[in-house]
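Can anyone check this?
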Amino acid sequence: MKYKRSLLKLSGESLTGEGSFGIDPKRLYQYAQEVKQVVEMGAQIAIVIGGGNIFRGLSGSNHGIDRVQGDYMGMLATVINGMALQWALEDLRVDTRLQTAIRMEQLAESFIKRRAVRHLEKGRVVIFVAGTGNPYFTTDTAASLRAIEIGAEVILKGTRVDGIYTADPEKNHNAEKLENISFEDVYNKRLNVMDMTAFTLSCENNVPIIIFDMNKKNNLKKVLAGENIGTLVSK
């Protein structure tokens, strides 16, 4: 296995499956089975999940909701998604721990770096929720921050496309897939990989990012094994 410890970033929208809102149980179980497979191979994996399938703070502010209030609402949406993913994993007999950036003792542990690392060392999947715990920061930024804190070797951004293209492949059939690209080129070409704060954190701390199609069976296993899946962003 090429990557022993990794941080998997999933968007909230990915949990909707074929729908446009909420959580699709089939997609939830699909992701849980993919994670279980790599844990059984000995991978240490942490997960950061978004909340856009329930509420997105930025879009809420566009409709008159106070930005800070909206961002906190979005953080709570990530807690719901994290609890759902935890349930699916534990239903498959995968040990998990839910850690939150906002204290809520009845639901989850507060984030503590050393405790999170210890859970990973014991083979538990750690799910980080509530973003960074601060408004104005996305779950992409939370993913980069947590990856750095736990010493992850790579950030895996699971999406519905199989990597970075020279143009939007859903709109331009001539778009070419990029197998490898540098942080500098992503910045210069203004490619949409992660938000700029998250991207800068990853670049400055030399944590590579792999963008890949999470919806394709066994892709997570292949990525961690070092197969040429998706697009690798590195220095």
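Reply from J.R.: I decoded it. The radius of gyration is 17 Å.
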